[in-house]
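job 3f2a | input accepted
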Amino acid sequence: MENISDVKGEGCACGRVAIAGKGLGPGRIGLLLAGLVAWFVVYGRLLPFSKFLTYDLFGLAAGSRLADAVEFFLYDAPKVLMLLTLVVFGVGIVRSFFTPERTRRLLAGRRESAGNVLAALLGIVTPFCSCSAVPLFIGFVAAGVPLGVTFSFLVSAPMVNEIAVVLLYGLLGWKVAALYMVMGLAVAVVSGWVLGRLRLERWVEDWVLAVRDAQGGEADAPMTARDRVDYGLAAVREILGRTWKWVLLGIAVGAGIHGYVPQGFMAQVMGSGSWWSVPLAVAIGIPMYSNAAGIVPVVEALLAKGAALGTVLAFMMAVIALSLPEMVILRKVLKVPLLLAFAGIVGCGILLVGYVFNLLL
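job 3f2a | predicted structure (361 res):
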């Protein structure tokens, strides 16, 4: 669903906003407030508007498969894009306080147990994309961050990112969003801790271990309130520019599932009654990488058609955290045994999440 140059496009806008050194000013505050009010007004009218377009303007028959698919798309497309805009802007401001250099300093020298937890939590709000996986990995290792702590960060950052959590909340409710976040963090913490206990540093590529942090990192420039707002706006422009087509593609796939897949089919294939449903979902998810914003509408449609929650969450985690493009990029800094250990341990954690949720819910 996404080529390697675009993977994990969330969060690549860091460091591209010029420091203006000026305050927001009453005019700009007024524009921000007016925009927020307009957002809520439009968001509240999306459902009746999608019904008007589907049944009144297009004249589709209520209850038909085509009408169900079209209404799903016309409702979810603006809904997801609007949620994405608001979330990316807000978290962009938060991310302006957590530059990669500052994150690296926070993690350097931490003991593995506490460091794994801190790294997983920082992964949620730190700018990260697959294209930055290699330099971040090198920078963390050179700064003295333990290997297991580094892996906790690399698992958490793409999988438990704010876009996935907030979209899950907006589309499926706070319980699903909270469960996903807690279990995703658990996978990141435990996977990193296990990898750290195995002492696999010898399987890091030799040239990475030879790198020395000679430059000591760039100093974090002070930012004003206006700078942080500009940072958030820049994040919206870049992230939406990278992801909107994949969001619409994911919603289109979800609409097709919603309208044309029989009600009981997904319950048979991805239901909790079949032991093989979770590993099958993970195996399907690995080669079909999409970013979080693109896969959430597919998850929504799968659940609506009877797929088990644990199976679907395992599928989503595999799509985001264990994609083939991610493995290809990490191969630049990891030797094959460590790469396989990383994929295997994270994969086992994802399988455990799927089985536990299917047993409990």
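job 3f2a | Confidence is low (pLDDT under 50) at residues 1-21, 212-217.
job 3f2a | closed
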